[in-house]
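A reminder before we start the practical. When you read a complex entry, don't treat the lines as separate problems. The point of joint prediction is that each chain is placed relative to the others, so the output describes one connected object in space. Small molecules and nucleic acid strands, if listed, are placed in the same frame. In the example below there are two entries. Take a minute to note the order of the lines before looking further.
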Amino acid sequence: MDAEIIAVGSELLTPFRQDTNSLYLTDKLNALGIEVRYKTIVGDDRARIAVVVRTALERSRWIIVTGGLGPTEDDLSREVVAEVLGRPLHEDSRIRRRIELRFARVGRAMPPNNLRQAQVPEGAECLENKMGTAPGLWIEQGGAVVILLPGPPRELESVFESQCLTRLELIVPRTILRTRIYKVIGLAESEVDHRIAPLYNSYNNPVTTILATPNGIEIHLRARAADDSAAEALLAELGDKIESEMGESIFSTGGETIEEVVGRHLALRHKTLAVAESCTGGLLSEQLTRVAGSSNYFLGGTVCYSNELKTQLAGVPGGLMAEHGAVSKPVAQALAAGIRRRTGASIGVGITGIAGPAGGSENKPVGLVFIALADELGVQVREFRFPGDRDRVRLHAAMAALEMIRRRLRD
Amino acid sequence: MDAEIIAVGSELLTPFRQDTNSLYLTDKLNALGIEVRYKTIVGDDRARIAVVVRTALERSRWIIVTGGLGPTEDDLSREVVAEVLGRPLHEDSRIRRRIELRFARVGRAMPPNNLRQAQVPEGAECLENKMGTAPGLWIEQGGAVVILLPGPPRELESVFESQCLTRLELIVPRTILRTRIYKVIGLAESEVDHRIAPLYNSYNNPVTTILATPNGIEIHLRARAADDSAAEALLAELGDKIESEMGESIFSTGGETIEEVVGRHLALRHKTLAVAESCTGGLLSEQLTRVAGSSNYFLGGTVCYSNELKTQLAGVPGGLMAEHGAVSKPVAQALAAGIRRRTGASIGVGITGIAGPAGGSENKPVGLVFIALADELGVQVREFRFPGDRDRVRLHAAMAALEMIRRRLRD
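Here is the predicted structure of the whole assembly.
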């Protein structure tokens, strides 16, 4: 029941691009008990794609080809797979109509080369693509299944999720793989490992993996069992120990992002939020508003990069900045209190800091960030020194602000 | 003169780890004029590694195997390659001494399995590894060269740099590979292809690739020539035609992002910018402030999610929203003009729209976005209907706003 993933695209053979779809696919296939044995990356070249597909057909039961389904001349996956499998292509009028409609809906003329995407190999099932014009394809031949998926990750994930999962579940014998993901904030990967290694070392089911991500550390537990409740019991046995060791540092056990957790807490308590950001430049607002329905609790905020705007938009007294500097505890407090007062939000957050690369000094180095939270009980403020470059400092600061809100709402 | 990279390691077939060595290697090989045609990833399995190496020997001149040279039982690359090439292994006493010395120097006993690393296939050259215990191997056979490199990136890069580069330069005839990247905005991938395919179809040097990225379409031209100026001439010949066909739609030829281009134009013209965002929730501000030094021209902005804040922070008259709705041309205009007036910026931008998933109606569907730009000449406003989900609508809207600013600054 082994799978092989073939990523098609010349850009994936340059130093600038990497195939990431296979990580998503591996995760999904593993959950069904299917192991990925080979991954191959090949350019937009008819002969070479054919070689790779033929090789895969000799050795794998599941062959997933990603990319090369687009409308352009160098999108060849559909044609080459049809040729290798000896299945002539014909135009599918339903797909044609769907593509025409997509263009019509956004009021644009359809370039004729888009019709390539309506070509279907004989006997293939089409996998509807709600996110784009290129449908996926599912072809069974001689015991093997060849699945073609569009390359853009959101299209690939949408097609796989809505069209492939059920089909796969019908064919694959049921062994259950269940994953529990703990998300941790405010600790380094090595600290997390140091604390939980004594717990997980004695288990090989679940398998434990610790992962550093831009949004914190994740602890993945993967249990394999005959059924759901057996898998859950295995997860609970080790998971409970990890939860009690990590305590408050775990902000999510169900895969939620921290902005989702914060949003849920705010909605539950009928509280509203407004933010005044300087060094994060809108990142905190942007993260909060990624959550659908965030307009129910997030009123808005200001990005006050200049000192004048800190006064103008968040009511920070000019004298305060003259006295303490724009990057200071009092200014963070004034931003939080000011934006709360101006917007009437239950909670106001203020961020000021030095993201770099320029602007640092000995006393106030790059990475220095003050974050304040104002609510009906008063204003709390914290000082942080974040490592890394501009992007990292901004990301760390936005995450720290979300974590301050989360902790405040829990208390 | 084509190369193939084989990454060995079961961890590279999980959802959590990715082969990154191949990006480094591709960069180095390209600089020598060697193209990477295939990348394969295979687990620590004797039979499967053998299949992959045999396949590579049939189709590639340069075969680089990374990983699987360590001391443990599941490090199999050395043995399998020796077997496939029919070259018995023997112990190299110099390597053995070097490994023993390494352990002695840190005062540790050498685990006996480390001696596996002193095994060398007959006729292979050893590539010294200054960063670790596993040496690389260089094996020439029947016109092909098989290079084995250790998996840890530091070790791989050190061995490649110090041992492989000179060897390669002696063998490879000097050819240069140069890349030019055009970034395009406001057009679909298929439209770009439709317009430039007639131009690039008659060239196979440079090679043209069209790429859809979250931040627009990229056109990559890669030219191969004997030296820099010949490569540049080839790039210019096709590139000039593409530039004159795509005209204004090309916003960058040197790899710059659109926020960098906008920032450069603003700085050059001593103009300042402020934004009032609704549906993009801070994304536009966040993109603008990714650029180091953006505080020189970006004053800041407001994220006014609620109607009250549109009035409070950007001075949008309440009556305007009552009459036209918050998502409307007049409100976008009022946001742009209001934030410009309040902040004293040269340019004010206002965005209002429906990002979804909820909030759409028949008249005002999800994806409807109005973007306005106010400057000393007045206020222009555009209506957009963006496809896709919440994330896509927000991203499209922020990109469209950046593009409006860019065009305004060029005029």
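Discuss with your neighbour: Chain A touches chain B through 92 residues (CB under 8 Å). What might explain this?
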